[in-house]
Amino acid sequence: MPDLLTEAERQELLPPLGVAGWGADPTTDSLRKIWKFRSFSEAWGFLSRVALLAETRNHHPDWRNAYNVVDLRLTTHSAGGLTRLDTEMAAAIDRLAGAAEVQRDQTAEIRCLCELRHGGRP
Length: 122
Hints:
Blueprint: H1 7-19, E1 23-25, E2 30-36, H2 40-57, E3 62-66, E4 69-74, H3 84-94, E5 101-102, H4 113-117
Antiparallel strand pairs: 1-2, 2-4, 2-5, 3-4
């Protein structure tokens, strides 16, 4: 089982991920990022690429997809929190996202294109 990140490792590894839009959630000891793609098809293609990566690495994210939005979390369940597997996976996932918009304020409401197009109704 991988080891949890030490405080020194967190100080080293998490800030660059934060610049890329990953937020550390201390309540779940996870990394989270929200992408907004131009369409459902682009979001689904991204999810498919991430799924193949996850299978290759045997390290699977928790995610939610609503039309063009992908809300993804990484944590190492077997270790009970963040490990290097998560930080390495985050960097690899970023290479798959293309030019998607990143919702940096993770406390803001997440609204997909269909909600925006239909006046707030999905």
